């Protein structure tokens, strides 16, 4: 290795003086255009760190002279979208839900908006496809089995006020006793067989006869003598072979012995009335929605207008940053 610098005869360029086995390294200068590009990007980088958030500090980063932030940009974009659909949202709040489907444009808007609301707030429990999770008692919203009614008004009321929660005085409410506290194991087993018989499942006929008497004395006041349920109090229909927690013997034993107490939060104040109605329209259209009652050619009037204390939109009650969506829409 040599450290002697010289001028290369072929190129006229000075060498670095480094040589390995007769191979020399030329000290070729950088192209002028590359140097000017480098200088320009260096200056641009310094200016950028002055104008925009850049330097990390103890409690955050420098804000930048322009005050720009990605959160601010998203908020501005959301505001633009909200302004563009303000008229439709206002119409959605004031329309009679019973005749929403008669306005094709508004109904289409409500369903599409409801799809987004459902994905952000409801799918965590009911699933992205709204098929529910039977093991956890999250209802399937695709079928036509409804505890509290399946019209769009009924669904909106359920979404607005929730089920068995202590946050809304108008929440849907029902409570099944835990019969394990005063029934024997044999009595519970007999009632399980009768309930399976009501649902058309394989059962022990002798035990079912015993269970029928227990059912009539203790359960029929809510579920009805025939086990068809009562929507006024949210008592399930036991004859349709659709089970919220499962229809096998183990699941029914647990239901009768310990009772169930599924809870759904009230979404009215959190989402705003427009989004409540939108998600109701979406759920109603998933396949199991029921038609409103008719009087002649007119839809029967119903109490689908909420308490005035509910905001018209979610912007009036913003969710805390990082706060997760909770609990299910129950049918």
TrEMBL record:
<dbReference type="InterPro" id="IPR032858">
    <property type="entry name" value="CcoP_N"/>
</dbReference>
<feature type="binding site" description="axial binding residue">
    <location>
        <position position="126"/>
    </location>
    <ligand>
        <name>heme c 1</name>
    </ligand>
</feature>
<feature type="binding site" description="covalent">
    <location>
        <position position="222"/>
    </location>
    <ligand>
        <name>heme c 2</name>
    </ligand>
</feature>
<keyword id="KW-0375">Hydrogen ion transport</keyword>
<feature type="binding site" description="axial binding residue">
    <location>
        <position position="223"/>
    </location>
    <ligand>
        <name>heme c 2</name>
    </ligand>
</feature>
<keyword id="KW-0349">Heme</keyword>
<keyword id="KW-0813">Transport</keyword>
<keyword id="KW-0812">Transmembrane</keyword>
<feature type="domain" description="Cytochrome c">
    <location>
        <begin position="109"/>
        <end position="199"/>
    </location>
</feature>
<comment type="similarity">
    <text>Belongs to the CcoP / FixP family.</text>
</comment>
<protein>
    <recommendedName>
        <fullName>Cbb3-type cytochrome c oxidase subunit</fullName>
    </recommendedName>
</protein>
<feature type="domain" description="Cytochrome c">
    <location>
        <begin position="206"/>
        <end position="287"/>
    </location>
</feature>
<keyword id="KW-0479">Metal-binding</keyword>
<keyword id="KW-1133">Transmembrane helix</keyword>
<comment type="function">
    <text>C-type cytochrome. Part of the cbb3-type cytochrome c oxidase complex.</text>
</comment>
<dbReference type="Pfam" id="PF14715">
    <property type="entry name" value="FixP_N"/>
</dbReference>
<dbReference type="InterPro" id="IPR008168">
    <property type="entry name" value="Cyt_C_IC"/>
</dbReference>
<dbReference type="InterPro" id="IPR009056">
    <property type="entry name" value="Cyt_c-like_dom"/>
</dbReference>
<dbReference type="GO" id="GO:1902600">
    <property type="term" value="P:proton transmembrane transport"/>
</dbReference>
<keyword id="KW-0408">Iron</keyword>
<keyword id="KW-0677">Repeat</keyword>
<keyword id="KW-0997">Cell inner membrane</keyword>
<feature type="binding site" description="axial binding residue">
    <location>
        <position position="264"/>
    </location>
    <ligand>
        <name>heme c 1</name>
    </ligand>
</feature>
<comment type="pathway">
    <text>Energy metabolism; oxidative phosphorylation.</text>
</comment>
<dbReference type="GO" id="GO:0009055">
    <property type="term" value="F:electron transfer activity"/>
</dbReference>
<feature type="binding site" description="covalent">
    <location>
        <position position="122"/>
    </location>
    <ligand>
        <name>heme c 1</name>
    </ligand>
</feature>
<comment type="subunit">
    <text>Component of the cbb3-type cytochrome c oxidase.</text>
</comment>
<keyword id="KW-0472">Membrane</keyword>
<dbReference type="InterPro" id="IPR004678">
    <property type="entry name" value="Cyt_c_oxidase_cbb3_su3"/>
</dbReference>
<feature type="binding site" description="covalent">
    <location>
        <position position="219"/>
    </location>
    <ligand>
        <name>heme c 2</name>
    </ligand>
</feature>
<keyword id="KW-0560">Oxidoreductase</keyword>
<dbReference type="GO" id="GO:0016491">
    <property type="term" value="F:oxidoreductase activity"/>
</dbReference>
<feature type="transmembrane region" description="Helical">
    <location>
        <begin position="33"/>
        <end position="52"/>
    </location>
</feature>
<dbReference type="GO" id="GO:0006119">
    <property type="term" value="P:oxidative phosphorylation"/>
</dbReference>
<dbReference type="Pfam" id="PF13442">
    <property type="entry name" value="Cytochrome_CBB3"/>
</dbReference>
<dbReference type="InterPro" id="IPR038414">
    <property type="entry name" value="CcoP_N_sf"/>
</dbReference>
<keyword id="KW-1003">Cell membrane</keyword>
<keyword id="KW-0249">Electron transport</keyword>
<dbReference type="InterPro" id="IPR036909">
    <property type="entry name" value="Cyt_c-like_dom_sf"/>
</dbReference>
<feature type="binding site" description="axial binding residue">
    <location>
        <position position="176"/>
    </location>
    <ligand>
        <name>heme c 2</name>
    </ligand>
</feature>
<keyword id="KW-0406">Ion transport</keyword>
<dbReference type="InterPro" id="IPR050597">
    <property type="entry name" value="Cytochrome_c_Oxidase_Subunit"/>
</dbReference>
